[in-house]
Amino acid sequence: MTSTFLEAPRVFGPQKGADPASVRLLEERLGLLAGTYPRNPAGVPRTGAAGGLSGGLWAHFGAELVSGADAVLDAAKFDEHVESADAVVVGEGRLDSQTGEGKIISAILERVQKSGRRIPVVAVVGSVAEDLGSYARHFSEILIATDAAEMQAAGKSVAGYSKLKRR
Fold this sequence. Notes:
By secondary structure, the chain is an alpha/beta fold. It has 8 helices and 3 strands.
């Protein structure tokens, strides 16, 4: 996602429980803060990540603004590991319309597709929002696991994707 500093409250606030009045207050406060920084992050793409933390780091310390998802996947050597994977398992507190907008899961799905391998991608999540819509088709399976029994069942289901288990 490439949200700007001032978009952070609107984009991420409701996901974290902020009501419309709280979102407006957060936007107002970030707007005031942005003008006091050595560099104003207000309209700069990617400065809204982590609730505006990236914007503060960019404004005060000159942090480089890159895709966090790609940086993490590169550091973990994801592309190398996917070459021998039987499946890819992703996790998220809540799958929703923002999942496909630059979050780690969207980057993983993109890289699996670019690998040319047709391997299953399984999502183990806390909940699925109604607004997920057709994005659900990207997953071989979506498992909701919010307690120990559901996590254990999800683990058994995921284990079934292993070639070793099929022998």
